Amino acid sequence: MIALVDYDAGNVKSVEKAVEKLGGEYVLTSDPSVVENADAVILPGVGNFGDCMEKLISRGLDKALISFASSGKPFLGICVGLQLLFDESEESPGVPGLGILGGKIKRFPSSADLKVPQIGWNNVFDCKGRLFKGIDDGTFFYFVHSYYLESADESIVSSKAEYGVTFHSSVESGNIFATQFHPEKSSDAGLKVLGNFLDLVKEGR
Amino acid sequence: MLTKRIIPCLDVKDARVVKGINFLNLRDAGDPAETAAAYDAQGADEVVFLDITASADSRDTQLSWVRDVAATLFIPFTVGGGIRTTDDFKAILREGADKIAVNSAALMNPDLIYDAAMKFGSQCVVVAMDAKKRDGAEGWTVYKNGGRVDMNIDAVEWAVKAEKLGAGEILLTSMDADGTKAGYDIELTRAIASSVSIPVIASGGAGKLEHFYDAIDAGASAVLAASLFHYKELTIREVKEYLRDRDVSVRL
User: Fold this and answer.
1) Which CATH number is A63's domain given?
2) How large is the ipTM?
3) pTM over 0.90
4) Which CATH class is domain B5-245?
5) What is the pLDDT of residue B55?
6) Chain A: closest CA distance from residue B40 (Å)
7) Residues of A carrying an active site annotation
8) A156 is in which domain, residue-wise?
9) Which residues of chain B are within 8 Å of residue A141 when distances are taken between CB atoms?
10) Would you put residue A8 in left (φ > 0), alpha (ψ -120 to 50) or beta?
């Protein structure tokens, strides 16, 4: 059973519908013990980094997620759910993230030529790893964000994208997967990424 | 590279599409979820639904079709029409909509933009504005109630204010161009897009392929059309291929 973490931070419904369509067995939950005992965890998230952290902490989910992450079972973070895995964000100075992975979240440089937030379809490159099985380099995914990941460890970066800067659009580190883009909103390519994750869950890796 | 977005717009009344795509192979051409899925298959980057029923007692009906759309559409969609409070935002987002468009309600109560952005994030707050050229003077003013009431607010000032309050995007409709098929209002699009740093969706007036290019050239991040796609005068793919051939980055 996949624990789809519902902590009142954005559009969990879209992720739920996509998992449902792909035939994944999931439970929507904000209960730390359900999270810790799940076979897999999906952490969505939309909105402000600090707010999202606070919502996790107030429900005791921060510790549950950190503990789950070390279990070796599949974990997928999406959008702010990716950002929260890291140390800190320029969006909320002084608020520590979950610190499961090393790196920081930075703001896109705003300029006349660069609208922030980045909203829309961007192509990812240097794709590697299990989430991108069967997906071509250069495939488009849907992004909505003002802040981007700079992973401390380049070797865990599983795709990159370009928006004013080259940023890390997804990571894979052992059992931890995360995407800055929204697979649940990226049409067929996105469903393929989620399907790849669900396959890992089925295989129990 | 971030692509320019092509967005079909569907008018919905009593949970039925009244202006949308007209495919013969649909079981039910008036069903919002099926219609939107057909646009997804055509390569639409997003879909905007404007609920023209828009009365408070139709909220349950609205929630029900939004739920159906969310279950079948895996590209982003925006819902507008009759949204007045952050509770309305919450209810519709909860059913799976990605963004909410507000127009009159934001003009009457600009704090709605701020409150919604604080609660749900700027990414889901689309400020829709209907702008019309001033009579015998420079610039444009914004109108409320579907273009019926002139608010005497300068369109550029309103866009700047909406951004400051936390809007994530501007959906800009030119009342002068809307329905003419003579092209988007390029001057208006340029004036707004160059005054804000959030994306601007140009709307109203698309009639030919080059109109899409012109709006993007004027600074629009996305272009919206309704009847052109509805009556299949152009397909989304044709628009995208045209733009690609002119070095505009699109998702094909």
Assistant:
1) 3.40.50.880
2) 0.88
3) yes
4) alpha beta
5) 60
6) 8
7) 79, 182, 184
8) 2-203
9) none
10) left
